[in-house]
Design brief:
It comes from Citrobacter freundii. The chain is of the alpha+beta class. It is built from nine helices and five strands, in the order αααααααββαββαβ. The protein folds into two domains: 1-85, 5' to 3' exonuclease, C-terminal subdomain (DNA polymerase, domain 1, Orthogonal Bundle), CATH 1.10.150.20; 104-200, DNA polymerase, Y-family, little finger domain (Dna Ligase, domain 1, 2-Layer Sandwich). Helix 8 packs antiparallel against helix 9. It is globular, with a radius of gyration of 17 Å.
Length: 201
């Protein structure tokens, strides 16, 4: 989701604000085009250290052995690498502390298969994100929705995808954010799958 959101911001004209990263090859191509210091949570100091180690792109980071990352960096960077690989790393529900980005997400106790149930969940997360924006006197212009099945489910295909929408004007209005979030959901929803997690950012 973060990768799609970043791509939508970086290449606004080319993407039209909606980025589909369901294709693994497309994901890796995008990661290879992004310098490692553009990854969320990586500052200039860590970026320089990674560069010295030969880790220059987001793809380089995603392909780095977890044990190496754990040995030389914090658990935060390890988690970032795991997220780049599509591994579920978030707690039951998370509100990101970074004020530049708010994430409202949840892992479902029972997997969701019904579109209306998923839409209701996305509306709830979008509403919470809007509340947090107002509480912090912030506005947003990009809304992303992500959904994913379990990568560990036996005999079930894995599917994880996200879409981002750029609003015409920055907003903190729940109605605008909910509308954008549900439009993003429609762009990535696939019938017949059992979804484990979803969120809005």
């Amino acid at each position: 989701a973060k990768l799609a959101n970043h791509a939508a911001k970086k290449w606004q004209e080319q993407t039209g604000g909606v980025v589909d990263l369901s294709n693994i090859e497309r994901q890796r191509k995008l990661m290879a085009a992004l310098p490692v210091d553009e990854v969320w949570g990586i500052g200039r100091r860590i970026g320089k250290k990674l560069d010295v180690m030969g880790i220059k792109t987001v793809l380089d980071l995603a392909d780095t052995d977890i044990r190496f990352i754990r040995k030389h960096f914090s658990v935060v960077l390890e988690r970032t690498v795991r997220e780049l690989r599509g591994e579920p790393c978030l707690a039951l529900e998370e509100f990101a502390p970074d004020k530049q980005e708010i994430i409202c997400s949840r892992s479902f106790g029972e997997k969701l298969t019904d579109y209306n149930a998923m839409r209701e969940a996305i509306c709830t997360y979008a509403s919470r994100a809007a509340e947090k924006l107002r509480r912090e006197h912030q506005y947003c212009r990009f809304i992303s929705t992500f959904i994913k099945t379990s990568p560990f489910a036996l005999n079930e295909p894995y599917y994880g995808n996200s879409a981002s929408i750029k609003l015409l004007t920055p907003t903190q209005d729940s109605r605008d954010i909910i509308t954008a979030a549900t439009r993003s959901l429609d762009a990535v929803w696939r019938e017949g799958l059992r979804y484990q997690k979803a969120g809005v950012m």
